[in-house]
């Protein structure tokens, strides 16, 4: 079956309730394969059958239930969302003036103010309140009215009703020349609700910046080499695979590719976080977004735009939280059944007070308005995203890409950790064991001319220029002009061959030395092991290596349980058995052989330098191979889980306390608006308590 | 006390001037990037923007 897919940017969506409404509405349409919304970035991804639907018909369907939908083209910078500052400014200005005037009226009612003066002040209040109701509160009533025309209700419906009812009642009372006017209440209501909206939008805008920033790294000019040897300059996204581009010193590589020049030095700090420049030699890959230090570099393009590694990372970030969290699902359900209750509560309050308790029409109306306002469920809707958006954003800054908010929540629930050995807990390349310094320097003069991984390991920390006149014999070794040789045992004429990786050196005078390389643990591995111990998380070593080496590694680092000689299938079975028994294992691995286990794990972590398959399978990708980042991710996930729990409890208690108060007539609409905004701000502020983990 | 009939509108009118100033500052995007603007104010160079630069910044 063919399918088409497009992401839409949604306007008018404020909390999880709106997203779930759109998802449900679009999801039930014929031909729609997937509708998955993201409340944090206000986008929805739709996949559909082109025979039955089109992008236009689906956008119309979203509009029909009261939201605006625009197709989102990745890579194009969207104009940042309006912060509603003019609306807020106007509401604040009017509110302060009206409240000042209201004090005069309240004092005047008790003392000797004449009806003429009072009416004059009411008219001024009305003149100040009208622009607020018409202009500042448009952000509430426009989406509500759009939805109402199609017979739907949104989170804005109760607020819009409250504003309209209070304003209309005040005008009515003013014309009847009584003092039951509530222009102060209605402007204050709009003002405080707008404060909540402005903060919410500023927060959302910030978290969207990370993905856009990464994308912008790809928006560079490329110099394409034409068949006749000339160059043409074009935008990076207009390149296609197979093109040859030239990148000059200081320029960004426009697309993923393979180096055609002999050698180039690149700064990949934007992609991997690695601050040291990386040496790339001919036929090695070079990633988009890297800065070339030693240009010009000729690159044959392999992946462009969204297909390039950086494009994929940007997409991962944008997809964050799209995969909806378990906790968030609960909040969605809560919000969906909520709106009818809110409006029902308001109507009930009015009927009880007006018909049964004999309150005046105006008083009963104000009670109904207070109920509508105080129950606006934004605190419940914001409880999860306020924390997870910040946590994901913060981890991103620390070099940890969390692919979904769901993964963050699962990371907070893990009960043990299973890790691969080689490449994960130890470095992928073994490190040089102790050796004689003089011989080492002599050998390094040869090694400096080779790109072989072990030869490069030999040169680490030595500032040595390669000997002139080196000849490299592919697959065997390298030879200097004086007859010195560096390479395999056979190449230097040695008979013995140890079972661990080694490099052999024969100096000019015929003496043979062996450089042994031993498996080295990742730097800071002990920090991770100590951290897991402190948190009570058991660590299991799961490796494909021989029993001997795994046992030695486990013993050296105090790891109690280990499984050696595990095939990819063994690894997968171990994870699946654990999951079937109700365990929640975290899998930490880097290889293609780990990929199935990563997929099966409750939550999985990999490195940006790991194989691509492992990265795709993993829920969380560390940009640097530093075990400390995993500690940081787990610690942040624990904190986030705690704060989300607090937020959900808080919003539940808030509603349990305030709704009866409003129904009892103890809350004025103004007080209700302050409480409602305060609850939203409290939830957001609680999210900000999430601390940077060291 | 009849003086309030024109004093109150005048005071509100003065307040409106401030509000218009706020609208102008929002429209010219002075709240877009508070962090770097705060630092820019400290730099020694003080060259006013030309119309073209303003237009680009607005778009």
Describe it for me?
The complex is a heterodimer of chains A (694) and B (59). By secondary structure, chain A is of the alpha+beta class. Chain A has 24 helices and 26 strands. Chain A has a seven-stranded mixed β-sheet, sandwiched between helices. A six-stranded antiparallel β-sheet of chain A has the order 6-5-7-13-8-11, with no helix packed on it. In chain A, helix 6 packs antiparallel against helix 7 (183-216). Chain A is elongated, with a radius of gyration of 33 Å. Helices cover 66% and strands 0% of the residues of chain B. Chain B is mainly alpha-helical. The radius of gyration of chain B is 18 Å and the shape is elongated. Chain B has helices spanning 4-27, 34-40, 51-58. Chain B has three helices and no strands. Chain A binds chain B through residues 80, 83, 85-86, 89-90, 93, 97, 101, 117, 120-121, 124, 128, and chain B through 1, 4-5, 8-9, 12, 15-16, 18-19, 22-23, 26-27, 31-32.
| Number of discrete helical segments of chain B | 3
- Total DSSP E strands of chain A: 26
Main beta-sheet strand count, sense and barrel state of chain B: none
Order of helices and strands of chain B: HHH
Q: Kindly, what is the distance between the CA atoms of the first and last residues of chain B, rounded to a whole number of angstroms?
A: 51 Å
Structural classification of chain A: alpha+beta
The most extensive interface between chains reads: A-B, 14 and 16 residues
**Beta-strand content of chain B:** under 5%
Number of separate strands of chain B: 0
Helix content of chain B: 55-70%
Mean pLDDT of chain B: 75
- The percent of residues in helical segments of chain A reads 40-55%
Distance between the termini of chain A: 49 Å
Specify the structural class of chain B.
Answer: mainly alpha
How much of the polypeptide of chain A forms β-strand, as a percent range?
Answer: 15-25%
Q: How large is the radius of gyration of chain B?
A: 18 Å
